[in-house]
Specification:
Radius of gyration: 18 Å
Structural class: mainly beta
Strand order of the largest sheet: 1-19-16-21-15-13-14
Distance between the termini: 37 Å
CATH superfamily: Jelly Rolls
Largest sheet: 7 strands, mixed
Number of helices: 0
Strand content: over 45%
CATH topology: Jelly Rolls
CATH class: Mainly Beta
Length: 246
C-alpha cells in the first residue's frame, strides 16, 4: 500500500512596512526589512543571501561619514534627491534619482555618503552576501530608465544592460501599468523577493499572498510554489523591485 500524498502549503514570507525595524536620528529616518545594527531578530536575518534592505531618508546637508565595509555586495537605489559618495578606491561621485550604485566591498573599503543638497533624499540600500570572501573591491554606477516592464539592474553577468554582481542574484525594477498585467521573469534563482518602493501593487495569485502590497511592504516566496500569477499597479505611483536569489 502506497502512503497517501500530502500537499504542503507554500512558504510565503510577508514583511508589512509597518513591522520593519525603525532607526531614527535627527537627520536620518531608516526602515529595515531585516535585522540591522542594534535591531536583531533571529527570524529576520535575511532572505537567502539578501541580508539588508534599508529604506533611508537623509536630511539636507547630513549623511554618513567615512565608515568601513568588507565582504559584502552593496547596492544603492536612489529614489529621490541625490547623494554624494567618496571612497578609499578613489571614487567621488553624485548619485541622482534613477541611478543605481554597486560596490563590491570584498577585501575592504571605507566610504562616505552625504546629502550635500538643500533637500532631503531617499534611497534603498541593499546588502547581498557574496559567493566568496576576499574578492577585489569594485565600483559601478549607472542610470536606468524605468519602464512598465522589468528593467534589469543587477545580474551575475554584465548583460541586458545590468551591472554585474559577485553572486548569482538578479535584481529588476518596474513601474507596472494599471491597465495591464506584469508577469514575473523566468530567469534567476528559485527564491523571489518583491519590495515596493512606492505606491500600491495588486497581486493576482493564490490565497497564500496578500491581494495588495503597499509602499515598504516586502514579500518572499519560492518560484516553484507559483503563488503569484501576475501583478499590476493599483495607483500611478507603483514602483517595485524584484530579486531572484539562489
Amino acid at each position: 500500500m502506497q502512503p497517501a500524498e500530502t500537499t504542503q502549503a507554500p512558504t510565503v514570507i510577508f514583511r508589512p512596512a509597518a513591522q520593519r525595524f525603525h532607526s531614527r536620528l535627527d537627520w536620518l529616518d531608516s526602515r529595515h526589512s531585516f535585522s540591522f545594527a542594534g535591531h536583531v531578530d533571529p527570524d529576520w536575518m535575511g532572505f537567502g543571501p539578501l541580508r539588508v534592505i534599508n529604506d533611508d531618508t537623509i536630511a539636507a546637508g547630513r549623511g554618513f561619514g567615512m565608515h568601513p565595509h568588507r565582504d559584502m555586495e552593496i547596492i544603492t537605489v536612489m529614489v529621490d534627491g541625490e547623494l554624494s559618495h567618496k571612497d578609499s578606491m578613489g571614487h567621488s561621485a553624485v548619485i541622482h534619482a534613477g541611478e543605481v550604485q554597486r560596490m563590491s566591498a570584498g577585501t575592504g573599503i571605507t566610504h562616505s555618503e552625504m546629502n550635500n543638497s538643500t533637500e532631503s533624499c531617499r534611497l534603498l540600500q541593499i546588502w547581498i552576501e557574496p559567493e566568496e570572501r576576499g574578492i577585489p573591491t569594485d565600483y559601478e554606477q549607472k542610470s536606468f530608465p524605468i519602464d512598465t516592464q522589468w528593467t534589469p539592474l543587477i545580474s551575475p553577468q554584465s548583460n541586458n544592460g545590468a551591472m554585474r554582481i559577485a553572486r548569482s542574484v538578479h535584481l529588476w525594477r518596474a513601474r507596472p501599468a494599471q491597465t495591464s498585467q506584469l508577469t514575473l521573469p523566468s530567469t534567476g534563482g528559485p527564491l523571489l523577493w518583491l519590495q515596493v518602493i512606492s505606491g500600491t501593487v495588486n497581486l493576482n495569485g493564490s490565497d497564500a499572498v496578500p491581494e495588495r502590497l503597499q509602499q515598504g511592504d516586502g514579500l518572499g516566496f519560492h518560484r516553484m510554489d507559483a503563488v503569484i500569477d501576475d501583478l499590476s499597479a493599483a495607483d500611478a505611483e507603483a514602483d517595485i523591485l524584484l530579486f531572484a536569489l539562489p
